[in-house]
Design goal:
The chain has helices at about 15-40, 45-50, 110-125, 140-155, 155-160, 180-190; strands at about 90-95, 100, 130-135, 175-180, 205-210. It is α+β, with helices and mostly antiparallel strands. A hairpin with a 2-residue loop joins strand 1 (about 90-95) and strand 2 (about 100).
Length: about 230
């Protein structure tokens, strides 16, 4: 008698695919359930760590450097600075309507000017240059010189030995001249009488006036200008 074996069960391909899909679905549900549990758990490790904006070390990133804006200087066109007026070193004097330098021969009186020109020419022929230090002066300058002399010598009487007041000064009238250098003083003191020019004071070897007729001897000298105060 022949024994018959039970027939083997065979699964079709669609059945296998259905089994695999079911397993994948179950696994997805388990993963989703685990994530939901983590989100709902108040004791999770993620909730215990502070949320810090920064890198891996948890320190905040350095703030970007603040660039200081450099102020732009406004450039303005340089304003034109007026040039300072030149102050004359020598005080000019007025004769009529014309100003003359104190060192000029033109400010002198006609008589002294013409005589001094001839004397200067003769002195130059002898190798001596006559230079005018002070000819005609303004009354204002003469007054200032007198004030300076009073401070220097201590009194009006002592000052007038060297500087007379404007109304007594031959310089203000253009009738006197102070010359330099010393060689010119020596020459004019020796030969000035030939041209009518004389030295009037003992204490001022530089001071000359037209005091005589050309060719005649000069009058005796006075000790100082105090004698002319009258």
């Amino acid at each position: 008698m022949t024994k018959h074996l039970p027939p083997r069960r065979t699964f079709s391909v669609p059945a296998r695919l259905l089994s695999v899909t079911g397993l994948a679905l179950v696994a997805s549900l388990l993963i989703w359930h685990s994530q939901v549990a983590d989100l709902l758990s108040f004791d999770s490790a993620a909730d215990k760590q502070p949320v810090v904006a920064g890198g891996p070390s948890g320190s905040p990133p350095p703030a970007p450097p603040v660039r200081k804006s450099t102020p732009v200087k406004k450039t303005t066109a340089p304003s034109e600075t007026p040039k300072p007026k030149k102050t004359p070193t020598k005080e000019s004097t007025r004769a009529g309507d014309t100003k003359y330098s104190e060192e000029s021969i033109e400010g002198l009186s006609p008589k002294l000017r013409s005589r001094l020109k001839k004397a200067m020419t003769a002195a130059k022929a002898d190798g001596v240059t006559v230079r005018i230090n002070s000819g005609r002066r303004s009354a204002a300058k003469q007054r200032r010189l007198l004030q300076e002399a009073i401070k220097r010598y201590g009194s009006y009487e002592a000052a007038t030995r060297w500087v007379l007041p404007p109304d007594k000064s031959a310089h203000v009238k253009g009738q006197a001249v102070d010359i330099a250098p010393q060689a010119a003083m020596v020459w004019l003191n020796k030969f000035g009488w030939k041209y009518g020019i004389c030295r009037p004071y003992d204490n001022e070897p530089w001071h000359f006036e037209a005091l005589t007729t050309p060719g005649k001897k000069c009058p005796p000298r006075k000790p100082s200008s105090v004698a002319d105060l009258g």
